[in-house]
Amino acid sequence: MKLLQSLTAAAIISTLSFSVFAAQEISREKAKEMKLEMIGTVDTNSTLDPMDAKQHLAKKADEKGGKYYVIIAAAGKGHLHATAEVYK
């Protein structure tokens, strides 16, 4: 739970610092509001830092052809695993 809170806080604080990626993190509510099409999921498990996890997810979403992504899970003890839905 604490890891999820850390990931959420990192996402809020670092929104501007990851603007170099085409894929942008949004909320699930925003995805529904915008009526976006989900094109798949991406995940990462190669990092210990929530900020790095967000960066990896954004890059993978971009590579998959997505414009947006929603982080749906984050967990780990000594090794972080995060999953995101990708939308276009």
From TrEMBL:
One family name in Pfam for this protein: YdgH_BhsA-like
Domain of life, per lineage: Bacteria
Record's signal peptide: 1-22
Classification via InterPro entries: BhsA/McbA_stress_biofilm_assoc, Dodecin-like, YdgH-like_sf, YdgH/BhsA/McbA-like_dom
Keywords per UniProt: Signal
Xref: SUPFAM superfamilies: YdgH-like
Domain YdgH/BhsA/McbA-like: 36-88
Gene3D superfamilies recorded: Flavin-binding protein dodecin (3.30.1660.10)
Protein name: YdgH/BhsA/McbA-like domain-containing protein
Lineage: Bacteria, Pseudomonadati, Pseudomonadota, Gammaproteobacteria, Enterobacterales
